[in-house]
Amino acid sequence: MASRSGMKCFPIKDVLALLSQRVSVVAVILEYSFPKTTRGTDYCCVLRIVDQSHHETGMAVNLFALTADKLPHVAEAGDVIHLCNVLVRSFDGEYNLVYSKAFSSFALYQGKDSNDLVPYQVSSKYQRTNEDRICIHELRKWRVDFQPNDGRHEFRLFKEIKEGDHVNLACKILHFGEVAKDEWFIYVWDGTDAPPNTIRSKLEDEMNCPLPLQLESLAWPRDLYCTFPTVGSILRITFDGSIDKSHFHLLDNVKLKWIKLVNMRLEVHAGLWRGLFTPFTKFRYTPAEDNLILTRKRFSEERISRRFEINYLGCVPVPSTVTVVTVDCHCAPHVTLMEALTNNQVTAKFKCVVRVVAALPCQPEMLRSPAGIYRMRLTLEDATARIHAYVFAKDGETLFGGYPDTDSLSKKLNKLLGVTEGGATSDKRHPPWVSVCLESYYLNKDDTWGTRHFRVSSTKVAEEA
Q: Which residues does 364 contact at the CB level (< 8 Å), separation at least 6?
């Protein structure tokens, strides 16, 4: 098989014996990354490719171009790439291919088996022969039953993640978009609950530097988050500054699909989990019948379908004894905060298991107005969301057991907030899981959803707490 330069199109296995030579290869894209800037003025991206001859670990391809637009715009892992005139190199004991902006060329084809051999992207120097067409057709047929070997990859569930780790994730992309100018997020979910984080903020900072309700500078509209799952954590993924954004539109090709992400960095910001898409993070080919994905889908679907079974506690944590809910809310089933947020009734009553991560004011002597009326704002979170909930008047009387002295009030508030004895000035807290009754209400009847708020009611800090 020959390319325009008379160069044979090699199987990857044979390329391993051609160090420092230029070759042509037709292969399936096993992994790909977004373009990034180099230390100079170029752009580069990294692919990992496989074919019938070499599909256990594949081979890395480093591509360089003057602009990001001249690099491959991979629509989806699993597509086919035809690389022409690329150099075989060795680095750190592994063979790889290097695509030169000066003399190499490429074409991208859909990976699915079909008779359509029209590439969806070609470089300026690319030409194809009849032999190349045959090679592409045969590779597509092989890909139909190809299952990547994930043996060296451990794909963690969200419930297993740890701050600072670089992990592989198998998850569903729920949404992708630009929240504000140059502020892009991917929203992913696998049906499990991410672990609660230590709250690293001083209570007195809540007035001037409140804990955010979300990582985004602007919240998404209600009609969007009402499409999200109401159980399990939704992980926000943002992007390293060195990653070029010109290819982001290609994420539309994988929206609402289960995918695999390799080498994702995990961070915690203001107590909220955040994934960081670095230059070393890659999308990995995920077949429709991938065994791991099928297992994850079955688990998440079961968790949702069994959500309201009487004895099924898989969607909410077991609450501590710090609080009790009164009789009028006691029999209500526990719901997640996302279920409360997306409930189709503007005014409703819910019972939730949450952590109280902030209070405003936080000084016990400030919890009541000069007229002696309770008024405060609590920041509540669970695995699905973080919200503000207000405590007013008689609800405060119920919560704190009337009008205790300042010392007793301080102890009760500290129990809610996870402040240990003598730790009032600490910037590290571990709030307990507590059961609370929430009621939703609105401020303006002409804009009920836009002015919807929550308040804590029918909830009491237990005396023995």
A: 406, 409, 410, 413
